[in-house]
Design brief:
By secondary structure, the chain is of the alpha/beta class. It folds into two domains: about 140 residues, Aspartate Aminotransferase, domain 1, CATH 3.90.1150; about 250 residues, 3-Layer(aba) Sandwich (Aspartate Aminotransferase, domain 2). It has 14 helices and twelve strands. The strands form three sheets. The protein has a seven-stranded mixed sheet with strand order 2-8-7-6-5-3-4, sandwiched between helices. Strands 9-12-11 form a three-stranded antiparallel sheet. Helix 6 crosses helix 10. The longest helix has 18 residues. The model has no long low-confidence stretch (mean pLDDT about 95).
Length: about 400
């Protein structure tokens, strides 16, 4: 007998992937350059030359066993040490290699982190708007997702609702800043307030509530700012990271969990994740990619294109009368649709070969997500089409 749970999931496929596949098919009909596909958050800039050069050098100089053999269960020690040193240097932390667990991207990192600090039946709190794949990440672990409603005014944490939702059954809180889908950045005030709430509730419950910080967009921050490093604000933090965005290598599937050295059970959590790997198969990332990442983990691709694209779209949405919060980072923006039903709004956009993603599954009904990780030229070419769409379909909008 097949697994009914996964069979049921076939009728609830990832809307982002569905729309991306539609855009690809439409592109075969009219040329992909004529489809304005804002569906999938696939980084659009090249990897830094340092990553390419390092990969080539490793292939030319290292033995096949070093490059292509199984990596150790807990990761290559020299890689872990270099990642720890980078985090310490950049964020004034005190990691050692023993606090770093390399993973197959941020998804693998979150899968390990959740299982390390929850047991089946526990609740994991997330704040809307949130990445919809958190549902299978959490529910697949045996824990239960619990969603705090969004503050639609600014997409910061709705603290009144959060305090009410943070009951004794909550073992962990999962946050994402800068945020997919809203692009919002949690500032120091927000993180200090969250840390105070978690500390208060931990004392009240008699057990620590863990904080899992999903940070793949940490380096994509606008207006000359930097993203505060979440683990500095709360000791019991597991940081989940991916180099998919910073190095622009999403297909290489490389990331890590960093366990705060002052976290409860800090010395046991990484070895525990090695055991978790045995059960979920997210084990032993590519040796070659780990080694290349370790030598370039302080580098980034040219991420400035995303701020350029954001400003072009933000200004256009404002001009056309959309309610929209200006992103502080990522390559996403999430305006409010011009009708109550965001699914219908996005369907109408398809008539103009504009692919937007309704944000209902992100915990933001009535909104839509725009992933602007495209060439800036294509973003500029999309603007007249967006104006045409809005003016023809919504002639009474405030534009």
């Amino acid at each position: 007998m097949i697994n009914q749970e996964y069979l049921n999931m076939l009728s609830n496929k990832n809307i982002i992937r569905i729309l991306s596949e539609y855009a690809t098919g439409r592109g075969k009909e009219i040329g992909y350059e004529n489809v304005f596909d804002f569906s999938l958050g696939n980084p659009s800039v090249p990897a830094p030359q340092s990553f390419t050069d390092t990969s080539i050098r490793l292939l030319q100089t290292k033995s096949p066993m070093t490059l292509h053999g199984y990596s150790p269960t807990l990761g290559i020690p020299e890689v872990k040490e270099k990642v720890a040193a980078s985090l310490n240097r950049r964020f004034d932390m005190k990691y050692t290699g023993n606090h770093i667990f390399p993973t197959s991207g941020a998804a693998g990192a979150i899968a390990h982190a959740i299982r390390a600090v929850t047991k089946p039946g526990d609740e994991v709190l997330v704040f809307a708007p949130y990445f919809p794949e958190y549902n299978p990440y959490i529910n697949g672990s045996g824990a239960k997702i619990k969603v705090v409603p969004a503050d639609f005014e600014n997409f910061q944490i709705n603290f009144d609702a959060a305090e009410e939702a943070l009951t004794e059954n909550v073992a962990a809180v999962l946050i994402n800043s800068p945020n997919n889908p809203s692009g919002i950045l949690y500032g120091e005030d927000t993180l200090e307030k969250l840390a105070a709430l978690l500390t208060k509730k931990s004392e009240q419950f008699g057990h620590n509530v863990f904080l899992i910080s999903d940070e793949p967009y940490r380096e994509i921050v606008f207006d000359g700012k930097e993203a505060p490093y979440v683990a500095k604000y709360y000791p019991h933090t597991l940081t989940c990271y991916s180099f998919s965005k910073s190095l622009s290598v999403p297909g290489e599937r490389i990331g890590y969990v960093a366990v705060n050295p002052v976290c409860e059970h800090a010395e046991e959590l990484v070895p525990m994740m090695g055991q978790i790997s045995r059960g979920i198969g997210h084990n032993c990332p590519s040796s070659l990619i780990m080694l290349a990442m370790a030598e370039t983990c302080d580098d980034t691709a040219d991420l400035s294109v995303y701020e350029t694209n954001m400003n072009l779209l933000y200004d256009t949405f404002k001009e056309l009368g959309f309610t929209v919060v200006r992103p502080g980072g990522t390559f996403y923006i999430m305006p409010k649709a011009l009708e109550e039903d965001s699914v219908e709004f996005c369907k109408k956009a398809l008539k103009y070969d504009i692919v937007f993603v309704p944000a209902d599954n992100f915990g933001a009904p009535g909104y839509f997500r725009v992933a602007y990780c495209l060439d800036t030229d294509k973003v500029r070419r999309s603007l007249p089409r967006i104006r045409e769409f809005v003016r023809k379909e919504y002639p009474n909008a405030g534009h």
